[in-house]
TrEMBL record:
Ranges that cross the membrane: 20-41, 53-71, 138-159, 207-230, 295-317
The protein, known as: Uncharacterized protein (TIRG00374 family)
UniProt KW keywords: Cell membrane, Membrane, Transmembrane, Transmembrane helix
Natural source organism: Rhodovulum kholense
Compartments it resides in: Cell membrane
GO CC terms in record: plasma membrane
Membrane topology: Multi-pass membrane protein
């Protein structure tokens, strides 16, 4: 049977180009800002700080980031089993890592490409698979909020605005994962709009699917996996500061990293670009670190976390896309 390409297959190309241009523009602005700060403090000082790091330190930072990604991939697999995905650990890891290419899309909505791969390879409907995306984002918010609270309790001093940010993250996660509440909000939205009954009907179906994730063991395991993953990156930031001769303590470093990541996400910018870097540099400066150290630490940690994830996504995405199409074509030919 010959597969006829549909308009939906071709539609993503302009959107991908738009997202790529947006990401490139934001990256250029961030790099220009970091370069301006480095120039203001003196290139020699900033490069001198970076020269403290060798390939072994870089490998350690990347390994801790990879641990974060793999732990969260296991969480994705756990959620997938709850919605009825057939067994396939490596398939789920491939989908999760491949989706990282789309991290820097507005609201990270580009990561919904994982749902497309699931539909192609397993036939699972959108109503049942889309809540995976919601649960994944909510689980990250909960894990990071809990880590931030722990950091505030175990470190000396405080981070201005950290408690409201943690509370907002927990509240957003609670609302997004409450099936009945989401279903009621969708119903209210339909009554206000009065149009697109099929769309709102599918949204209600997705909201009801959220009830499958309320099992205490699933929630506990997902929070544990997410917390261990984000702690790995927070610990990487602590190690980086130690190697740069700016040890501010484990929990203070973890708190700054998590707060900056959450604050960057609240800006709505793709990947938190701009907001996360600004928050991190400002908080490090408040700890008394020289600007050249703050800029160097921020640049390195963002390369070894956000951009490392995008790099992995760039490698895995074509594989995931090709394998999902091959599976879909094989099913159609039967």
């Amino acid at each position: 049977m010959t597969k006829i390409p549909s308009a939906s297959d071709a539609a993503p190309t302009p959107r991908r180009l738009r997202d790529a241009l947006l990401m490139g523009g934001l990256l250029s602005l961030v790099l220009a800002s970091l370069a301006g700060l480095a120039a203001a403090t003196g290139w020699d000082q900033t490069m001198g700080q970076l020269a403290r790091l060798g390939w072994m330190q870089g490998a350690a930072l990347l390994a801790l980031s990879l641990a974060n990604y793999l732990l969260r991939s296991l969480r994705w697999n756990l959620f997938g089993r709850r919605v009825g995905l057939p067994p396939g650990l490596w398939r789920d890891i491939r989908h999760y890592l491949g989706g990282f290419l789309m991290i820097a899309t507005p609201g990270r909505l580009g990561e919904l490409v994982r749902v497309r791969w699931i539909r192609r390879e397993t036939g699972l409907s959108l109503d049942r698979s889309a809540p995976l995306f919601v649960m994944d984002r909510a689980a990250d918010l909960v894990a990071m909020a809990l880590i931030l609270c722990a950091a505030l309790a175990l470190s000396s001093g405080h981070i201005a605005g950290a408690i409201p940010v943690a509370a907002l993250a927990l509240a957003a996660a609670a609302v997004a994962t409450h099936g009945r509440l989401m279903s009621a909000l969708v119903t209210r939205g339909y009554r206000i709009v009065g149009r697109w009954p099929r769309l709102f009907g599918r949204l209600r179906g997705m909201a009801r699917t959220l009830g499958q994730f309320t099992d205490a063991r699933v929630l506990a395991a997902s929070i544990l996996l997410g917390s261990l993953g984000w702690m790995a990156e927070g610990y990487a930031f602590h190690l980086l500061l130690v190697w740069l001769g700016a040890d501010i303590g484990l929990w203070k470093a973890v708190g700054i990293f998590v707060f900056a990541t959450l604050a960057g996400g609240l800006t709505g910018a793709p990947g938190g670009l701009g907001g996360a870097e600004a928050a991190m540099i400002a908080l490090l400066a408040l700890e008394g670190l020289p600007l050249e150290t703050s800029v160097a630490a921020t640049a390195v940690i963002r390369v070894t976390t956000l951009w490392f994830a995008i790099g992995i996504g760039a490698l895995v995405f074509p594989v995931a896309e090709r394998m999902s199409k091959r599976t879909a074509d094989a099913v159609e030919d039967r």
